[in-house]
Amino acid sequence: MTLPVFALLAVPREGGGGSTIFMVQMVLIFAIFYFLMIRPQAKERQKHDEILKGLKKGDEIVTNGGIIGKVVHVDENRLTVKTGENTRITVDRGRVASVMDVKGKAKEEEESALGEESPASRSSRARRWKK
Which residue range(s) make up the domain with 29? Predict the structure, then answer.
């Protein structure tokens, strides 16, 4: 299996294989971009969409504009949010940035803290062990 790969990457004697090497390099660059940028963003978007589908009456939300409130009524594409004593606004469901838990933390952050460790916490833990 490795022999055909080495054959593709080998330097041609007459200089006629430059286009295949270029194509292999382009495929590798695309693969790197896919796994480092496109795929993580798609996973993040999928998690956010699941959270938006699960919105219900009583959830505390933060909109993209920074408005914090409690969901009073849920429609298919719109939410009615109570932001104060007598203030209710209608918000598009897609404009919800995050859903808050009882403690005031975003549920997305809480789930990521339970599932995966952030790079900052990994580096601080590594510093503790070096001491």
Answer: 1-53
- How many distinct structural domains can be found in the chain? 2
Give the C-alpha separation, 89 to 81, whole Å. Answer: 5
Q: Cα dist. 116→14, 38, 98, 105, 119 in Å?
A: 51, 19, 19, 17, 9
Sequence-ordered list of residues with C-beta below 8 angstroms from that of 72, at least 6 positions apart, any chain = 57, 80, 81, 82, 88
Integer distance in angstroms from the first to the last C-alpha of the chain? Answer: 46
pLDDT at residue 20, as a whole number: 86
Dist CA 86 CA 113 (whole Å): 36
State whether 39 and 67 are in the same domain. no
pTM of the entire predicted model: 0.59
pLDDT tens for residues 77-92? 999 999 999 999 999 9
Q: For the packed helices 39-53 and 107-115, what is the interaxial angle rounded to 10 degrees?
A: 130
Residue pair 57/71 in contact by the 8 Å Cβ criterion: yes
